[in-house]
Write a structure and sequence with these properties.
Layout (H helix, E strand, L loop, with lengths): L1 E2 H8 L11 H11 L12 H8 L3 H15 L3 H35 L3 E6 L2 E6 L8 E5 L7 E13 L1 H4 L5 E2 L7 E2 L4 E13 L5 H4 L1 H4 L8 H30 L4 H15 L3 H19 L2 E3 L3 H6 L4 E4 L11 E7 L2 E5 L10 E3 L2 E3 L5 H12 L4 E4 L3 H5 L4 H4 L4 H4 E4 L2 H12 L4 H7 E10 L4 E8 L4 E7 L1 H4 L3 E6 L2 E4 L2 H16 L2 E10 L10 E10 L4 H12 L3 E5 L4 H11 L7 E4 H6 L2 H7 L3 E5 L3 H13 L4 E5 L5 H6 L2 E5 L5 H6 L2 E3 L4 H41 L8 H12 L1 H7 L24 H27 L2 H22 L16 H19 L1 H7 L6 H23 L1
Parallel strand pairs: 10-24, 10-27, 20-23, 24-26, 25-26, 27-28, 28-29
Antiparallel strand pairs: 1-3, 2-3, 2-4, 4-8, 5-6, 5-7, 5-8, 9-29, 11-12, 11-23, 12-13, 13-14, 15-16, 17-18, 18-19, 19-22, 20-21, 22-23
Bound molecules: adenosine-5'-triphosphate (ATP).
């Protein structure tokens, strides 16, 4: 929380004395007016989820047939079938409910926040808690959280296209255009707004019903698999009808054959395919959240795994965004500044000798401009509570003094504020000397910012700061300690050289300038150059490893920055993004080439510097034309189009604006590049897991269908009865398949090249693997069934053998599915506890149904001898053993 008084100084609050509500008043209003939210579509209820489990026509037919068989007297079997169907439905319900809940929680996490003044302090609160009469502070990139009236503005432009359809931003002012509306977007400037209406009482509330139609779209993979599921369903249905008809023709009782057909259809049709994928994606999303990546669109999870280019901002994503001024240059002076982070204590050194910076006029003016042309706030964290407990700081792991100081606002400005504080020029001192009248806000296109203020003598001054290459071209004179001189082209060249020297030390350099406004215009022109200020922003430690991983994974890392070319190269080189021989393009160079030329160049460029947001769009388009899948980060209001255009638009959680967050498919909660790479890794793992359980589910289903189909074709008695088919389905397709969906990765997924986005799910021979294994499972089961029947002449024993074989082959196969490269005996089997548990559970149930007499009567099983079990085990292991041998040879 930050003091409202200091913000009042920045806003020149003489014009408005309203200081917002107290927390108590806000609470009362919240009770009276309710939350500031639009009525949402009714959430999916538990009842609906339960009902959904039975909406499948086959399950309904199965239940009806079971009830008929109940009436006909086969009570125990009928009840057991009903129980199995219900267990299946319960499993489905639990999974779907968990998925719904976790998606809801994610939505809450990405809900917008707003800055309000409460009890005289600026606080960041959930936008839903805003009440009428709240005083809110708005800045470029904010989504306006409620309807209200501006009471103070600084070049305040709002995009109201959502309400009016008009794409040109509207300038708001106190007199003729003061109203702002919920959901519209601040494109430029800053304002203070008094909230007039909230929630459904806003203009947005009135049209809210029109917006309710927006639904969550299925991901491309979900859609493709839904199609596949349907195809398999029809195929299975055809086969089941065929089996039923053959059975009936052969003289089996009609009703029994119907039940066999329906049970087989229920077991074989992979109706859980899409549901399991949704669960797999949702659980993956949870894992990503633990790694600080908040997924906003489920489809991003799939796309992440294919990304072949990662375009990242520099400041804050690749660097720490903890800027500290280390160098100051003015005419004839080059001063070093010491200190750490945002802690406002440090020394000013001239040739290693400590000096008072206020003794040098030009340095003093540089520091004043730094402090006044600034909207950030410096504050110290309150650790009195920890101190009061009187326990040694070691135990509490107290933050160091430099970490106690934090900045609200732009860290570049924070660094400038801190250096002014180091010289004793704090807010109190500066606001006594200068009173702010107006502001031309910073904008990443203009790359500079100015304020107009009056000093104690009543003179009007413009203070400007910004990128040196931009600001210097607006200067015609130079401030020296002996007076103002003309800024000749020679001096200009020297300054540019000094700027480049500072930049090559990886410093971000800002130029400060000023002019008196009494005679000249209030445009940013004809300025007096005062000095250069260099600040360090160290690369993030995690970024070094992340970039290495990225390159190893065949992904091209690209730095896109608003900063100077030399600073950008210095940092990119340290991080390993830029290698000697790589190309660097600046915004100006980008403006000179067309799309086709850029398309040819992109593969060799690793750094783009001094770019504006519109250049980002050009770069993405060029990569996309070259068939790359691009992840692009962004934070500012103007980054939204690029974020939307990217295959994966990535917004910053801390420094990002509402607009970029809303346009993004993923938010980095810690603004960290390493998090993006972790999310890509997670995306690859999730895709692999989807392949794993599709492989498992389909090969098992093929095995089940083939057992019955070929058995009937060969004129054998039915290898399995309905209750056995259903229990095989429950024991193998249920928990083990889901556990496979959350399988930890055993291979380094970041060692491979990115997958092609058009690559089908069955690529790289997966389809054949599935069909082959399905045939093997069916063949092994029939082999056991036929041989046991021949050897014992007992149909129950033969069926029990087939039943156990079908379960065992599948429970062994589930472990094989953990890797497409390794054989069963190379795979770490015990690294997935839920899978081990699921398999043990299934084994326990299958053994119980074979050996517990009461269950034997229900499942029509007969106890098998040790030898018989041994044969089944050997046969079930035969294929994995053979494939291991084949792999070795
Ligand atoms: P990156 O794109 O790597 O994240 P950035 O977002 O900080 O960098 P911009 O914000 O576009 O890049 O800044 C571009 C340039 O504008 C900076 O190099 C700096 O010279 C100048 N600049 C940045 N912030 C301010 C500010 N608050 N006031 C004036 N000038 C600024």
């Amino acid at each position: 929380m930050f003091s409202f008084n200091s913000i009042k100084a920045k806003f020149n609050t003489d014009r408005s004395s309203y200081e917002g509500l107290t927390e108590k008043e806000a609470k009362q209003r919240l009770e009276k007016y309710g939350f500031n939210t639009l009525k949402e579509k009714a959430k999916i209820s538990k009842i609906k989820i339960i009902a959904d489990q039975f909406k499948d026509i086959l399950t309904i037919i199965l239940l009806i047939s079971t009830v008929i068989s109940l009436i006909m007297g086969d009570t125990v079997e009928a009840i057991t079938i009903i129980i199995i169907v219900f267990i299946n439905a319960t499993l489905g319900f639990i999974q779907e409910y968990r998925t719904e809940k976790s998606m809801e929680a994610l939505k809450k996490l990405s809900a917008p926040h707003a800055r309000v003044v409460r009890d005289g302090k600026i606080t960041n609160i959930p936008a839903s808690n805003i009440v009428p009469d709240d005083l809110i502070i708005l800045e470029a990139g904010d989504k306006i959280p409620a309807d209200g009236k501006v009471i103070e503005v600084a070049s305040f432009y709002v995009d109201e296209s959502l309400l009016t359809g008009e794409s040109i931003s509207v300038e708001k002012n106190i007199s003729s255009c003061p109203n702002v509306y919920m959901g519209t977007i601040v494109m430029q400037g800053r304002a203070k707004v008094i909230v007039k209406s909230t929630g459904m009482n806003t203009e947005m509330g009135k049209i809210a019903n029109m917006l309710q139609g927006i639904t969550e779209e299925a991901t491309p993979l979900q859609k493709r698999l839904e199609e596949l599921g349907k195809f398999i369903a029809y195929l299975c249905l055809g086969i089941c009808i065929f089996i039923t008809l053959i059975g009936i023709i052969r003289g089996e009782p009609i009703f029994d054959m119907l039940l066999v057909g329906i049970s087989l259809a229920v077991a074989a049709i992979p109706e859980s395919l899409t549901a399991t994928i949704t669960i797999c994606l949702a659980l993956g999303v949870q894992r990503m959240l633990k790694r600080n990546a908040l997924i906003r669109k489920l489809s991003a999870v799939e796309t992440l795994g294919c990304s072949s280019v990662v375009c990242s901002d520099k400041t804050g994503t690749l660097t720490e965004n903890k800027m500290t001024v280390t160098k100051m240059y003015t005419y004839n002076n080059l001063i070093n500044v010491t200190g750490n982070g945002f802690n406002p204590s440090g020394k000013f050194l001239n040739n290693n000798i400590q000096i008072n910076p206020l003794d040098i006029e030009s340095i003093k003016l540089s520091l004043e401009i730094s402090g006044v042309c600034n909207n950030s706030e410096l504050s110290k964290k309150d650790i009195s509570n920890i101190k009061k407990k009187g326990i040694a700081s070691k135990i509490y792991n107290l933050p160091s003094i430099s970490e106690l100081w934090t900045i609200e606002g732009d860290p570049t400005e924070g660094a400038l504020l801190v250096v002014a504080h180091k010289a004793g020029l704090n807010n109190n001192v500066l606001s006594k000397k200068y009173r702010r009248i107006d502001e031309i806000p910073f904008d990443s296109n203009r790359k500079c910012m100015s304020v107009i203020c009056s000093d104690t003598k009543g003179s009007k001054l413009m203070f400007t700061k910004g990128a040196p290459d931009i600001v210097i071209n607006k200067c015609t004179k130079m401030y020296t300690d002996r007076g103002i001189i003309e800024l000749t082209s020679n001096i200009k060249r020297d300054i540019i050289k000094i700027n480049e020297n500072l930049a090559s030390e990886a410093l971000r350099v800002l130029c400060v300038a000023y002019k008196e406004l009494s005679s000249s215009s209030s445009k940013e022109e004809d300025l007096v150059f005062v000095g250069l200020i260099g600040m360090i922003d160290p690369p993030r430690q995690e970024a070094f490893i992340a970039i290495k991983k990225c390159i190893l994974a065949g992904i091209k890392p690209v730095m896109i920055t608003g900063d100077h070319k030399i600073t950008a190269i210095a940092i990119a080189k340290q991080l390993g993004i830029y290698k000697d021989g790589d190309k660097v393009l600046t915004g100006i160079e980008l403006d000179k080439i067309d799309e086709k030329q850029l398309q040819k160049l992109v593969k060799d460029v690793s750094v783009y510097s001094r770019v504006s947001p519109r250049h980002k769009l050009m770069i993405i388009k060029a990569f996309k034309k070259n068939n790359h899948i691009v992840a692009m980060t962004g934070d500012g209001v103007n980054d939204a189009p690029a974020i939307k255009e990217a295959d994966i638009g990535v917004a910053m959680g801390i420094s990002g604006t509402d607009v970029t967050k809303e346009a993004s498919s993923m938010i980095l909660l810690d603004d960290n590049f390493a998090t993006l790479i972790a999310a890509i890794e997670e995306g690859r793992i999730i895709y692999k897991n989807i392949r794993k359980f599709i492989r498992y589910l389909l090969s098992c289903n093929i095995g089940e269908v083939l057992t019955m189909f070929v058995g009937i074709l060969l004129g054998m008695p039915l290898p399995l009865i309905p209750i056995q088919i259903l229990s095989v389905n429950l024991l193998t397709d249920g928990l083990p398949a889901i556990a496979l969906g959350i399988d930890p990765s055993i291979e380094n997924e970041m060692k491979n090249k990115p997958r092609k986005s058009k690559e089908g799910i069955f690529s790289q021979g997966l389809l054949w693997l599935i069909v082959f294994r399905g045939i093997v499972i069916g063949f092994t089961t029939l082999l056991v069934f036929g041989s046991f029947l021949k050897a014992t002449g007992n149909l129950d024993i033969a069926r029990t053998g087939a039943y156990l074989t079908l379960v065992l082959t599948q429970l062994i196969h589930v472990f094989e599915c953990k890797s497409e490269k390794l054989s069963l005996f190379q795979i770490p089997i015990f690294n997935n506890k839920p899978l081990i548990l699921a398999v043990l559970c299934s084994l326990l149930v299958v053994i119980s149904t074979i050996y517990i007499p009461f269950l034997q009567t229900i499942f029509k099983t007969a106890p098998l001898t040790i030898n018989q079990v041994g044969i089944i085990l050997l046969l079930s292991l035969a294929t994995p053993i053979m494939s291991t041998i084949m792999r070795k040879s």
